[in-house]
Amino acid sequence: MACDFLIVQRYDNLVLAKVTKERLLDPASITSLSDALIAEVNRSAMRPSIVLDLAEVGYLSSAMIGKLVAVLKAVKAVKGRMALAGVKPSIMPLFKITQLDKLFDFSEDAEQLILAYRRKPL
Amino acid sequence: MKELRILPGPPPALETCVFTAHWPSRLDLKQEIMDAISAQLLDRGWISPADCPWVSLCLDEVLVNAMMHGNEGDPRLDIEVSVATDGKRWVVLVSDQGTGFTQAVVPDHDLPQSLMLEHGRGIRIMQEWLDELSYYRNGSCAWLARQRDDVTTS
Hints:
The structure holds 2 protein chains of 2 kinds.
Chain A lengths: L5 E6 L2 E6 L3 E2 L2 H17 L5 E5 L5 E2 L1 H16 L3 E5 L6 H6 L7 E3 L2 H10 L3
Chain B lengths: L4 E2 L9 E9 L5 H14 L8 H19 L7 E8 L3 E7 L26 H8 L2 E5 L4 E7 L7
Parallel strand pairs in B: 1-5
Antiparallel strand pairs in B: 2-3, 3-4, 4-6, 5-6
Helix pairs in contact in B: 1-2, 2-3
């Protein structure tokens, strides 16, 4: 499930996944990213904490938002948690309009989120 | 959820149409189409660069719907795209060769049970950003309109 625009770092059951692509619009990229993230969830121990760093993402489609929900479902299925970091102000309204701000934790900084998760393990 | 206007008749006549083109229903052409439409809007100053993520999102949504739902992914069927203005607003019209759709197929994401659905958010997003989202010919013709960036309100 390789995704050539996803950099993954693992710290025990913490996973920091950074997207290095600006546009998440085409079906191939959307599928590649969601498959890679779900693979990360599946290879993690129970109760993983996933931080998805979207700081470089400037364009999202509704299909990508739907796939993020699919990843969240996979995380919830193994009693884990998932957060989105670095979401640009220009695309943050998308999460509010679709009420996904109620489903995900958000932070401006991915590293801070990882530290917070480390301090407060599941 | 905002009511979605799906009307049986044809769309209003476009006052000043600046661009019309046809493309086959092929998703690999989607970015090319989006770039062509965005350039029409940007070059005329009808949208600002800050609008681009929203324009991309709306165009992505409406093109995928036209190609994959309206034309059922059949590359022999075309979509038609027009860019126009009524003086104060820009209008993008996207028509497919399908039979349309009804509001019943669009999930209401205001309902708690819809929150975890993986589809159906695109129309809601477009409704929020656009000044008008209407569908004509029973849904086979999408009408997207928003105030032009170069027109100031008085």
